[in-house]
Amino acid sequence: MEKNNQGLVDYAKKQVGIPYVMGTNCRVLTSSRLQSLINTNPAKWFTKVRIEECKKWIGQVTSDCHGLIEGYLNDTDQDGVVESGEGTYDTAADNAYNKATVKGTIDTMDKSAIGLCVRYKGHVGVYIGNGKVVEARGFNYGVCITNLSARPWTHWYEHPEIEYKKVKRALKLTSPRMKGDDVKELQRLIGVDDDGVYGPDTDDRVNEILEVLGR
Question: Where are the extended beta strands (E) located within the chain?
Fold first, then answer.
């Protein structure tokens, strides 16, 4: 099954609400898995307080930040749980960024391109459009939806294991009519000739504004 940007967005949304556990990637947390992680204790993440809380999550699906993307890549049946016999792709968030060939600083990001990864050193999230990101944010947050502009992202990139396809956005108007006084009001607000007809010039200007807003 091809792994593409729309699929990544859909999968990330499905995982909103699951707990964050360092070193996990959308698999069911087991006692043995937890003990193994505690023994290696990546980045000294497993404090006494966190260990006790993690024990409450045994039997649940958990993930860390890049684990969210690994989950999508490994989950063959896309049921939200990576099970025995499914994929084994596993790497660090920074490694994925370093391997990416299409990337840039966050100010150059195309906000119409859903499924892009947004990152700062050691962390990554999935851009889902409309200025929103799904990220496994941390122990106190789990997997959640955040505002792109409210987080300290420094770069964006196309994940090297994901096929990126342009997704056509549907234009949403405030009115179901294509001409009339309400279109005139819209035209005045956006600074085009207010002839009351929703023509090419009006459409171009609306799309320019939507692009700036990231919609």
Answer: 25-28, 61-63, 103-105, 117-120, 123-129, 132-138, 142-147, 155-157
Please give the domain boundaries of the chain with CATH numbers for all domains. 5-157 (3.90.1720.10), 181-213 (no CATH)
SS (H, E, C) 143-177: EEEEEHHHCCCCEEECCCCCECCCCCCCCCCCCCC
What tens digit of pLDDT does each residue of 65-102 get? Answer: 999 999 999 999 999 999 999 999 999 999 999 999 99
pLDDT for res 167: 57
Rg (CA), the chain: 21
Q: How far apart are CA 13 and CA 164, in angstroms?
A: 18
118 Cβ neighbours under 8 A, 6+ residues apart:
106, 109, 124, 125, 126, 127, 133, 148, 151, 153, 155, 156
